[in-house]
Amino acid sequence: MKKRIKSQLEILVGSKLSNIGRASNLFWLEFGEALSVIRRGKTQELAEYALNIQCSWRITKDNKILVASRDFYSPRTGLDDGNKHFEWDVQGNNRFDERIEYFIRSLKEPLTVESIDSDEFGGLKVILSNGFTLNVFPDISEDDEYSEFWRFFTRGKDSFHFVVAGNGIEKDFN
C-alpha cells in the first residue's frame, strides 16, 4: 500500500497549495495550477489536483499543531453560549474555520509540496515548504467499501480518483 500511495501522489511534488477548506467534516485541499472545469453546467476555476480527507489529520509546524480534524467539533474563540446550541457544521462557527483562516492569512508566500510519504495503513505525510507538514492517519478499523479515509483526484482530460479506504485502494478513471 505504501508504494502505491507514494507513486500516485508524487505527482504533487513541486505543486503549490492553491486552496483549502471544508464541506461539513470533509477536509479538502487543492494543489497545482487553475483549470477551467465545467461542473453542474457552470464553468469554474479549480486546481488540477485535489485531496479530500475524511479521517484524522493535522497540520503542524515546529512541533506545534496549527489545525487538526477535531477542531471541527470545538467552537471558535468568542462563540460561547455554554455550548448548548453550538452547531459545528455551520460555516464559521468552529475552531477549524477560525484556525484555517488564520493559517491562510499568516502565509507570506504560497506553500509547495516538497515530498510525500506514506505507511502500510493508508496514512499519508505531505511535507510542505516553510516547515509545514500535513499528516493524515486513518483511525478506524472498519474494512468495508464505505470506510473511505481519503481520496486524491485529478481534474482535466486524464482525470482519475485514487481512493484509500478500510478495504484497500481503489483507482477509478473518469
List the defining traits of the structure above.
174 residues, mainly beta, five-stranded antiparallel beta sheet
Care to describe what's here?
With 174 residues, the protein is mostly beta strands. It is built from two helices and eleven strands; from the N terminus they run αβββββαββββββ. The protein has a six-stranded antiparallel sheet. The protein has a five-stranded antiparallel sheet with strand order 5-4-8-7-6.
Topology:
Layout (H helix, E strand, L loop, with lengths): L1 H8 L7 E7 L2 E14 L2 E12 L2 E6 L2 E5 L26 H12 L6 E6 L5 E5 L3 E6 L10 E7 L5 E6 L2 E6 L1
Antiparallel strand pairs: 1-2, 2-3, 3-9, 4-5, 4-8, 6-7, 7-8, 9-10, 10-11
- Report strand %: over 45%
Radius of gyration, taken over Cα atoms and rounded to an integer in Å? 17 Å
Helix percent reads: 10-25%
**Order of secondary-structure elements:** HEEEEEHEEEEEE
Major sheet attributes: 6 strands, antiparallel
What's the mean pLDDT score?
92
Structural class of the secondary structure composition? mainly beta
Overall number of strands: 11
Secondary structure tally, helices = 2
Sum this structure up briefly.
The chain has 174 residues and is mainly β. The chain has helices at residues 2-9, 95-106; strands at 17-23, 26-39, 42-53, 56-61, 64-68, 113-118, 124-128, 132-137, 148-154, 160-165, 168-173. It has a six-stranded antiparallel β-sheet. The chain has a five-stranded antiparallel β-sheet with strand order 5-4-8-7-6.
